[in-house]
Specification:
Number of helices of chain B: 6
Strand content of chain B: under 5%
Shape of chain A: globular
Oligomer: heterodimer
Number of strands of chain B: 0
Number of strands of chain A: 0
Helix content of chain B: over 70%
Distance between the termini of chain B: 89 Å
Radius of gyration of chain B: 38 Å
Order of helices and strands of chain B: HHHHHH
CATH topology of the largest domain in chain A: Rna Polymerase Sigma Factor, Chain: A
Strand content of chain A: under 5%
Largest interface: A-B, 48 and 34 residues
Largest sheet of chain A: none
Chain lengths: 197, 168
Amino acid sequence: MVASAFSSLAVMETEEAQIAHGLRRRDPDLLDALIEQYQHRLLRYLLHLTGNRAVAEDLFQETWLRVLEKGHLYDGRNRFVTWLMSIAHNVAIDHLRKRNPASLDEMKEPEDGAPFEPEAGGPSPLETAVARQQHEMFEAALERVPVLFREVLVLRFQEQMKLEEIAQLVRIPLATVKTRIYRGVMALRPAMKGGAR
Amino acid sequence: MTNQEHDRASELIMRQGTEEIAAQDAAWLDLHLSQCPECAAFAASFEQTGTMLRSFPITASSSLVMSTQARVRVRAEQLREQHARVALMAVSFCVGVLFSTASAWLWWKVGDWVVEQMGLPHSIVAPGVLLFWLLPAISIAVLMVAVPHRLAHPMLVSLAREQEGDVR
């Protein structure tokens, strides 16, 4: 078991080293493959961060251009996805600073009424309606959660990142990551109590 | 129960699922959750938040992916050209410096010989050689000021012609 864990770690290291090597050479085929591989995860992160699909798509392209330009800075010691998300985080912050230098909480566009498209997934019309209602309530609650908390929730739950990885990516202390996750979950609690049970 | 225990419990809850928790810690957490309704409620909310967040089916469209790939390829090409241009300029500069340094002694001697042949004072050798070195750059600058259109980049000239044609 230890041997298999060691070998999987070695495989990961090789993959990350190959990515780092390719990025240094600005290999277009590698970049194409990376865009394909991380398309949904990156867009999901940016969409949750901005709350607006058009903005998220612009930042998606901007992130990959920055990956191309800053690729030589990736050394392959950390997971590529963590580095990619940190680039996306910086791109989103730059975007926010241009739009509103005052606060990260203003990142979300209030005029966009439907940032997410919840899937209606139930066999019967009643279950479909209930599921939709749950999603809508959760979505509305998520929109009200400050982006600082929403970001760490997305990284923890959707990207399955470790707390230390989140701290490294967002450049905040570990204790702040825990506080933000805690406060984010607590902020969403009323919506889940009302809808999911 | 102390605040420290609640903090430990919430941290273990946050780490569970993405990180390996020692069996001893897991057992302690189970016991704590059975005795602490506050932490148990947080654990349930935490679990539900994860389920709800993961249920959003957000996907990137193929057009977004393709346009991103195209933009990245174009930018990569631009960067490659820029890099090649900078490298060429650096090499040209180095070669220029090398040749001008190597030929300085020779030009000095030539200047000396010319002055001697013409019976001129030796004090004009230094300004003469300097002027000779600067003459090409000065001539080009004068020409550019005097006839800017003739010395413009061919692409700019053709663009200007096209625009003239459009106006006509």
